[in-house]
Amino acid sequence: MDAAEFADAFFEQQMGRLQVPGAAIVVVQGDRVLYCRGYGWADLEKRIPLTGGTILRAGSVSKLFTATALLQLHERGRLDLHADVNTYLTRFQVHAPGGEPVTAAHLLTHTAGLEENYLGMHAHTAKGLVPLGDFLARHLPPFAEPPGTIISYNDHGYSLAGYLVEVITGQPFAQYVAESILEPLGMASSTLDQPAPPALLERLAAGYRCRRGGYHAYPLDYVNVAPAAGLLASAEDMAHFVIAHLNGGTYRGRAILAGETLELMHSRQFTHHPRLRGRAYGFSEWLENGQRALFHDGGTPGFLSRLFLLPAQQVGFYLALNADQQDRAAQLPRLFTTAFLNRFYPQSGSDAAPPVPAAGSAARARRYAGYYREQAGYSSRTLSKLAWVPRQLPVRAKADGTLRIGGEEAVEVEPRVLRWRSVSAYAVFGEKPSRQSGYLFFGTGAFRKVSWWEARPVLLGLAALFLAGFLGMLLTAACGRELGALARGALGAAGLLNLALLAGMALALRFTDQWDYFYGLPARVKGLLAIPFLTTPLAAVLLAVAGMAWSGALWTPALRCLVTSLALLGAGFIPFLAYWNLLGFRQR
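^ that's the sequence the OP posted. Answer follows.
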């Protein structure tokens, strides 16, 4: 395997095109490092090259260390993967719908059923960090589904898994991982400590986002969900972890897991359907070119990463970038993976035959049509609920029964099972009356069909109605001289403030850096959320004015109808805001 030639050519071709400041790659085969190198810059301003020894933030690749830690405790008889986590928790308890137990196995496969809440996950300073147990006691999100129903990627669930390590061992999570995983593997340039040791911080790359043609560095921040995203590591160190996972849990004679435990960790533990990819403990499956791989991605401000294993081939790699997931650079891990597989493990045999529609597929297609939102990352209690509206996935039925899902077409080849036209992969609709009813599954993602009133076209129509109404308030206030000062003032103020809220929230959702929300509600958003405290009493004033106009036969009937309609619209805006968690400053 000529990994060096392949990697050099790939990064030379792709880094400039995708605006990647720097990258590190390590490729492992068996118990040997085939290639480890850095490309580009660790620090653009200081012109420091990025090397295999440069430390980068690993983001959610940290979850693999958390999963390894729990499998160690399972191996030692200190943790039952299928026992209720409340057996171990003392400070707080976890209560799922229907009283069903949440287990460590659920947490490690993202099937606990928890919603997500990104607000407050990160802190600007080390002083802003909250101890793991305190953070989870206050911030654990509600449940969307009973445990074991769907896969819904979740940082809080993995942080709870890390907290189990603390409760069971009596050690801080970072200390346990250092003593039981990092030190045995010789990973001296890796840490979960916050703040990291100064000697490691000196070697930490700057993390960048590309904006308006220039690179902007993110300041180093801290994570309250360290078991999910707190690891700092070099590519050279990550090679040791990859080798252990390819060699029965052992690196240079030191075992972090027994072979049978590692096999359990790598085995598929949950899938929505046998035709789809599933999840192992920590890892997600990757199926391409006839290969079954295990992988995990990471993303944190200014950094991207991917750890990828081909256990049957005893080959793996770790890739890390100091670029952000909001940029074009986010395409690079996928492009590298596909190029790697095509180069060294190309697809054998001819392409699969075109999909053939199943009997009755045209009739069923109409039932599947609608709008779907991904469950991972969804929060029903915070304003991030609104952020998922633009990301809704439209499913449209064509006359021949073909379904257009987003920008791709799929054909139902058997009841509820679809095959994409563009690739030999599948999508599946949840079966009624199972607990997965109302879901569309593909990859390992779960997409829930939204009610008609939550569908994007309906909400855009409502927004347009409110927009027209608030403009009408301003126009009526400007032109309706006979209304009197109170009515004109209330109409003008309500219209102007509500327009500012609508426009401001749209701009905030569109242009605010997504990482700003990880520290809590941004100041500009808090300012917008203060507006309803003014417009709610104004709506009451307008309703009162309209009532007096009718009882006293003030103005013309047409003007009374107009003001009443505008008052009702202003009042109706209040429950609309409440439904989307825009009344008050709700952060959990």
